[in-house]
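Example 3.2
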Amino acid sequence: MDNDPGIVCYKHCGDRNVFCIKLPSFCHVCKQHVSDSLFIPIRVCYPFARASQHPCSVVFKPTNGDFLKNYRLMDDLHIGITTSKGVVVSYDCNGVVNDDVNTDAWQQCLVVYRVEEASWETQWDNVLMEIARADFWTKARLVMVRVILWHEFNLRQRYNEDTHNCLSFVVEFVKRLGMLKTCDRVINTREEFTDTFIAPATVNAQKYIHLYRKIVENGFYVYNSVSNEIVCS
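Structure, written as tokens:
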């Protein structure tokens, strides 16, 4: 299943960039034939991907629904790691979860990091398997327990949506792998990972989402100046 709606942009009526799903014969604005334009229509890059097609990657998606139809800024996100076979391994209230490559859950996600070198695949899988098997990643506890019967460490290792969650799982993997770096530092904390990888990807995706929803609402969208942030060849 291809989720790319296929947004195209054609330039017409002077400096107007007109975005739509299907290239029309006549301009949406001036109603003149599009072939009159000297500019070649271009396809807008689709920012989302199927996780199964991006092995050895870090990917994320909305916790509920998908990006194009449901996502709003500040909605909860769920992040996971793909194996060398494209299976997504993540952590939630049920503990460590493996999503089969054929699942619909990760058909529209953002890839924030990917290993290109095949030589890293074995180490990537081994580190991921080691972390996933650790007792530290236990599911949320639904029954009340007496603190006196539990060591504080055991209480902390239970899933918590704010302090011990899917992002914690990914950052632990990143730290253990020891290869995820920026130009000036190693990524070691949840805050560093979010600021460096998740926030920029979310902002860029939001531009595409806004554009898509405007087109769905009105049939087309007009931008009156060159939009290098949205359009790419």
